[in-house]
Specification:
Elements: H1 2-12, E1 16-20, H2 26-32, E2 41-46, H3 50-57, H4 61-67, H5 72-86, E3 90-96, E4 111-117, E5 122-128, H6 133-152
Parallel strand pairs: 1-2, 1-3
Antiparallel strand pairs: 3-4, 4-5
Helix pairs in contact: 1-6
């Protein structure tokens, strides 16, 4: 999937940045596994803690307190900030509860938000992943890459 997305980004002359929480850099690692990825991948932010979400991506503390780190609102803010901080054409953000702990009554293990931003629009998807911790992390990156693929192909807007 990372090769397909890389080729689409290269064909369209677009560059990408990412902001990752629960995936801990796995999306970035998958992207740079592709030879020539420096042509389209600028880099990313691994912001596992709320402190770094605030410090590096300017996610407001009030937003984190009101909605929690695993929320549509925070994922959207992470995505927009990553785009603004890097001047990329497209950004992807992921936040979630990989498990096996960290769940609350309203936010189960596997709850994951993935966002895509272009500066003109933001798309946020909500997923409930039901695998183990590392499988959830990998699946989150796969879903993020697929969201980007569909966007680049014009399947979603």
């Amino acid at each position: 999937m990372e090769e397909v997305v890389g080729e689409l980004l290269r064909e369209k002359g677009l560059n990408l940045t990412v902001a990752e929480s629960c995936t801990g850099g796995l999306l970035s690692a998958r992207l740079v596994n592709v030879p020539g990825s420096s042509q389209y991948f600028l880099g990313g932010f691994v912001v596992y803690s709320n402190e770094l979400k605030t410090k590096l991506l300017s996610v407001k503390k009030e937003l984190l307190q009101k909605h929690g780190a695993v929320s549509e609102e925070v994922c959207r803010a992470m995505c927009i900030s990553a785009l603004e901080e890097t001047d990329a054409d497209i950004s992807i953000a992921i936040t979630g509860i990989a498990g096996p702990s960290g769940a609350t009554p309203t936010k189960p293990v596997g709850l994951t938000y993935i966002a895509l931003s272009t500066g003109k629009e933001v798309i946020v998807e909500r997923h409930l992943l039901k695998l183990g911790r590392n499988e959830n992390r990998f699946l989150a990156t796969q879903l993020a890459l697929n969201l980007l693929r569909k966007f680049l192909l014009g399947v979603i807007r």
